[in-house]
Amino acid sequence: ATGLRGRDFLGLVDYKPEEIRYLIDLAIDLKRKQKNGEIYQPLKGKTLGMIFEKSSTRTRVSFEVGMYQLGGHALFLSRNDIQMGRGETIRDTAMTMSRYLDGIIIRTFGHRNVVELARSATVPVINALSDQSHPCQALADYQTILEKKGKLDGLKIAYIGDGNNMLHSLMIGASKLGLHFASASPEGYDPDAEQVKLAREFAGETGAKIDIVRDPREAVEGADVIYTDVWASMGFEEEQKERERAFKSYQVNEELAKGAKSDYLFMHCLPAHRGEEVSEGVIDGPHSVIFDEAENRLHAQKAIMAAIM
Ligand code: CP
Ligand code: NVA
């Protein structure tokens, strides 16, 4: 498909707007095929290794099921069960695994581990979440927004909370797809300056708009989508208490949502902490599309695998 074969999928930053759109359209097509009971197995006989250094529900299950549905086989490789956990280098792991596998996904801490794995592997590598980014989630989220709103271009997405991997991937996605992205984070929890700079560069080419502000009400004003994520990501658990204090006025609740459009979507990558970053009324209310997002992880990742593997 369209020259994506053999590519890595480390971040939306490496993909052109039309390539991201192609993957979203493919995801929608694969979703339709699956709902109609059509068998589509372009990856018959292929294998995917899945290295996890952090917990996962959605990513693990959707990649494993997706690979099966495409006719291939996936292996779950927990860091502690492979020699990487005992100090074997990422390079040796990548070189070895490339002799068995047709693709590798990795969920890890430092993004440089993802880059190092991709550099050393001779098969495509997919970023299944790093401290810097979570592009599979963002792709599924833009698919969800397109399905619900019928378009992406010109919509406003407000991200409230931690300047983390989710913020970065949504912001880069928005900058490539022509949305107005506005985020509000407390002082000390802003997004990475390098990521903001990149997003603003892309926005200059696509007509997207990137606003990084402090006040959640300002970000939410007139938004089509309100997105939030946990205050303490994986690896930051020991900061939970101090983050609860810092993020106290950043909860997405009915009061804050009043500033958004009346038909706004509420989105969250999950897992969520009800009563912290989002009120129960909002996450379980009529605007919430959290399980559509979760479902679309399956279809979006099938699209990525079918295109690059
Ligand atoms: N959203 C997401 O990636 O969920 P998991 O951590 O359960 O994979
Ligand atoms: N920001 C969260 C996303 C989990 C899917 C984390 O990194 O833990």
UniProtKB/TrEMBL annotation:
Residues 153-307 form the Aspartate/ornithine carbamoyltransferase Asp/Orn-binding domain. GO terms for cellular component: cytoplasm. GO terms for biological process: citrulline biosynthetic process; L-arginine biosynthetic process via ornithine. GO terms for molecular function: amino acid binding; ornithine carbamoyltransferase activity. The keyword Transferase applies. It comes from the Bacteria. It holds the Pfam family OTCace. Pathway: Amino-acid biosynthesis; L-arginine biosynthesis; L-arginine from L-ornithine and carbamoyl phosphate: step 1/3. Carbamoyl phosphate binds at residues 56-59, 83, 107, 134-137, 269-270, 297. InterPro entries: Asp/Orn_carbamoyltranf_P-bd (IPR006132), Asp/Orn_carbamoylTrfase (IPR006130), Asp/Orn_carbamoylTrfase_sf (IPR036901), Asp_carbamoyltransf_Asp/Orn-bd (IPR006131), Orn/put_carbamltrans (IPR002292), OTCase_ArgI (IPR024904). Residues 7-147 form the Aspartate/ornithine carbamoyltransferase carbamoyl-P binding domain. Keywords: Cytoplasm, Transferase. It is found in: Cytoplasm. Its main location: cytoplasm. Its EC number is 2.1.3.3. It catalyses: carbamoyl phosphate + L-ornithine = L-citrulline + phosphate + H(+). L-ornithine binds at residues 165, 229, 233-234. The keyword Mitochondrion does not apply. Reversibly catalyzes the transfer of the carbamoyl group from carbamoyl phosphate (CP) to the N(epsilon) atom of ornithine (ORN) to produce L-citrulline. PANTHER family: ORNITHINE CARBAMOYLTRANSFERASE, MITOCHONDRIAL, ORNITHINE TRANSCARBAMYLASE, MITOCHONDRIAL. Belongs to the aspartate/ornithine carbamoyltransferase superfamily. OTCase family. This is Ornithine carbamoyltransferase.
